[in-house]
Amino acid sequence: MAFLFKGTLVFFADTRPVSDFSLFYKYAVDLIQGKKALEQYLYFKTWAYQTGPVIYYAGIMKLFGTGLLPLKLVNCFFMAGSNMLVYLIARKVSNDFTARFVSLLYLIYPAPYFLAAVLTNQHFAACMFLAGIYLLLLEHKNILVRGIAAAVFIAAGNAVRPLGPVIITAVAVWCIVEALNHKSVAKILLSAVLVAVYLTANLGLSAVVKSTGINAEGLNNNFPLWKFVAGLNQQSKGQFSYDDQNKIYMIEDFSKRNEVALKTIKERVSVEPHKLLEFFGTKVLVMWAEFDTLAWEFYEDDNGTLKAPARIEKIEPVAVRVEKMFYIPVFLLLLTGLIKALAGRDIPSGIKLLSIILLCYFGVHLFIEIQVRYRYFAVLIVFILAAAGSEVLFTPFKKYKKSSML
Question: Are strands 305-307 and 300-302 parallel, antiparallel or unpaired?
Answer without folding.
Answer: antiparallel
